[in-house]
Records
---
Amino acid sequence: MTLRLVTWNINSIRVRLDHLARVVQEINPHVLCLQETKVTDGLFPRAEVEALGFSHQHIYGIKGYNGVAILSRLPLTEPARHDWCGRQDGRHVSAYLEGGGGKRLEIHSLYIPAGGDVPDPEANPKFAHKLEFLKQTMAWFRKHGRNSGPMILGGDLNVAPLKTDVWSHKQLLGVVTHTPVEVAHLARLQDSASWTDAVRSFIPPEERLYSWWSYRARDWRKNNRGRRLDHIWVNEPLRGSLAGAQVMTSARDWKRPSDHVPVVVDLKL
DNA sequence: ATGGTCGCTTGGCGA
């Protein structure tokens, strides 16, 4: 079988249920990793999501902001919540996907802190939190990755690592999401479990690629000042299974869009 | 250079 996984910062699942339905209709994934669901678990639209075919739901929401989920057509087992930096803030969940080609895949949905405006951990506690979050997740994956089987991670990692992941490398070197210290931290996270950047294994690094465009631009398409903040990574056991990748840019043009678009990867299992 | 827009916890915060 070919397993299709989407990661998407949906920026409120309640506001964008119709968009979720459209993603399901047009892309037909087996698994969705969502970020910024922005809803407590009691108010999560479980029935509506189940009606779309996703009866297996592992959710971790808090009031007002953040919130992550793994939604699946196939069974999910051993659902886990991961908390970092001493906060219970709905940024990381994992579960095992059962039955994909007889394999058992470990899935992670991750929402790394945005980091505020000033890229200085001394002056800006949000930036300090972002760097510390990256350190704690990399330490965990370094240990955990040693004896894990096939793993796939989808998330809003809030870092655009490559020059071609931003509209202007030069102009964004001092802007949070593209500073050298964040890129170095993300590289260490990527190294922690020998992750492969699944999307960039199909869309070459020379090619500009974005997954987020600010709401504040008057015309996002015309300015095209995007950044690639949303990523899908696979570990070594899945590297040979990679079968395709795409970024659903069209979703940014829908009515009342998220500022992020869905990112899709196919795995031949 | 500043402010521009969303969604949430109704109003300031986080992005």
---
Amino acid sequence: MTTDARIPLSRERVLRAAVQLADEHGLRALTMRRLAEELGAEAMSLYYHVAKKEDVLDGIVDVVAEEINDAVARVEPSPDWKRTVRERILTARQVFLRHRWAPALFETRSSASIAVLRYYDALVGLMRDGGFSYDLVHHALHALGSRALGFSQELFDPGASASAEVPAELAWQLPNLVGMLSEIAHEDPDSTLGFCDDQTEFEFGLDVILDGLDRLRERA
Amino acid sequence: MTTDARIPLSRERVLRAAVQLADEHGLRALTMRRLAEELGAEAMSLYYHVAKKEDVLDGIVDVVAEEINDAVARVEPSPDWKRTVRERILTARQVFLRHRWAPALFETRSSASIAVLRYYDALVGLMRDGGFSYDLVHHALHALGSRALGFSQELFDPGASASAEVPAELAWQLPNLVGMLSEIAHEDPDSTLGFCDDQTEFEFGLDVILDGLDRLRERA
DNA sequence: ACCTGAACACCGTTCAAGT
DNA sequence: ACCTGAACACCGTTCAAGT
């Protein structure tokens, strides 16, 4: 989907096109040459608007982070810190569902973008107002990890390794896993997303942590 | 550090060299050409022992996973499930500290290696014996995420963005973050690893989750 | 059976040159 | 000021050829 070549390039146009390219064809398709093609320009033209590819990657992280900030800004605060924080995080998660490549990329960035810092700043403020000490907020951010931003990279999807996919010769080595999977498959035979409902699992993990943090806050 | 060229290549030698190369120079240095050079061979020779680069990456994930399995096998079980699981996870973490590139790579693998599955199988068994239903174990694995395997990718290290590094013009946009960081820096002026002690934070987050899971187990 | 040289299709990036 | 062509140093990988 090559766009009109008459519109002049700009950093913003480049970044928008990069996000769209990643949305449609994944991060691997995001090469400088392909990106330029998408914009109806030559690869070398991009370098007038961005320093290098890393700059593009930093840029699209920022674009997504701004999208998150816009989304969570519409969440109306509640007197209950946990309710507000929970809703903000689930709202942020919706943005990541629109940009499936983003979690992996966010984790490769070493220095946080300004937009990400603003996101965290608001979170810190909400928890502080909810009765947390700065010290506990700090621990809380580490405990939440990427969940605070709205995603949780699944290392191993128990559902993806459903019993059917495990070769019989392997099964005997994994009695507990096989047992667990067969029971789950039995109990929830028609889950839409395979055996594990990502949304349910994300909320489960999030609530375990938020509840735990709330208990620590009360005790302190 | 080129090794003796007279020793014939083998899949195992290739993978060992790949791990060592990543340990010493990072994942980015792990190219087929460089790897071959390290082994005193030509890049094309590698393809007789591995299918493609992805195969090498799958392979070194497996090597690390086996290293983890060896390490946790030496953890002696306790009647308290939480104690045992906690110690196993912290033991696994030690392995990741020796292979800093591994967390990022583990997260890019879509299908889990057999060794990783064995690790999870043992974990499932321990929790099941500790009184968990299969269903709760399943939720627990999702809640722990990569922490179950012994690492937690930090998206944004609050310590890395210490107040000193935040430009003054940005600080006013981040009042809560700046407040939090200045207090933490003040309270813990001489932490070795910067402002955040990774080990402490990892254990904090792990304990929040394990305690939460234990409470859910009791209630069920 | 195991290893290699030459070659291909791709990268990101520089630099001098065009308008 | 903005864009481009040619070129460079790298990738992973194929394939026919060597021993």
